[in-house]
Amino acid sequence: MRPFLLFAIAALPLTAFCQSATMTQGRHRVEIQLERLDGSTWHVIDPGLVLEQGDRVRFRIHTDFDGFLYVMNQSTSGKYEQLFPREETGQDNHVTAGKEYQVPATSTAFRIAGPPGFEVVYWIVTPARLNDSPPRPEPPSVNRPSKPITLIPRCDEAILQARNQCIDNTAGPKLVPQDAELPQNIKGVGGMTPRDLVFLRQNDTSVISSPQSLTGPLIYEFRLAHK
User: Fold this and answer.
1) Residue 22 forms beta bridges with which residues?
2) 121, 116, 223: which is closest to 169 by C-alpha?
């Protein structure tokens, strides 16, 4: 495993895709787990666990529909970068209903680094592969720098006393706020409103589902809390 700084990789534009393709087959449900490396063993952890500097993490994802997965991050320093697909993390981003996938898909891992706060990881599943183009960052506005994320994770005292773990319940999968300042290269990909997605917890597995058939891309956030 060759670790590298969490999210310290370049962004790829996520613009035009084939509008004729839709995700109308079957159910529309995503299951996602966060794993942390302890010694030489990976363990599923609570998505709200406040991570430490140097922790190595990865994700597991399972869908009930076919599509193409793209993962992008806004770091605690405010920088927007694409995590997947790319050479270091895997370039085959096609997901098939009923199969489990790992991100990174290679033997690498994401290593927690940077100022304390919340990494905002955008997960996008599109019905067709997005057009490829040369890597370049796309912050919300080219006329102003992206802002650092200044919120600091806080432990839920009840959980801390019961489990001796620092859990911040504002971390984990979330809706993308309607007024969120998305990176330019994913602004045109969403097309969903907050009522379109339901978030559930099954132990340490997060479930994101749509009560109706999707006719376009699915997009949501996964907030990673760290010290």
Assistant:
1) none
2) 223
Q: How many CB atoms lie within 10 A of CB 194?
A: 9
Under 8 Å between Cβ of 83 and 5: no
Question: How would you classify the pairing of strands 67-74 and 80-84?
Answer: antiparallel
- DSSP 3-state assignment of 125? strand
Least Cα distance to 73 among 6, 2, 170 occurs for 6
**What is the amino acid identity at position 34?**
L
| CA nearest to 220, candidates 179, 188, 192, 181 | 192
Is 0.85 surpassed by the pTM of this model?
A: no
Written as six digits, the tokens of 130 are: 């997005």
Tokens of 135: 């890597």
Is the pLDDT assigned to residue 170 strictly greater than 60? yes
**E strand segments, 85-217:** 94-95, 100-103, 110-111, 117-126, 172-174, 198-202, 205-209
How many residues appear in the chain? 227
- DSSP-derived letter for residue 200 is E
Phi and psi at 186, nearest 5°, equal -125, 5
DSSP bridge pairs for 57 = 36, 110
Contact assessment for residue 138 and residue 185, using Cβ atoms and an 8 Å cutoff: yes
Amino acid type, 195: R
pLDDT digits (tens, 9 = 90+) for 73-126: 988 888 888 899 999 999 999 999 999 999 999 999 999 999 999 999 999 988
Q: How far is CA 49 from CA 40, 60, 90, 120, 227, in A?
A: 20, 16, 26, 15, 10
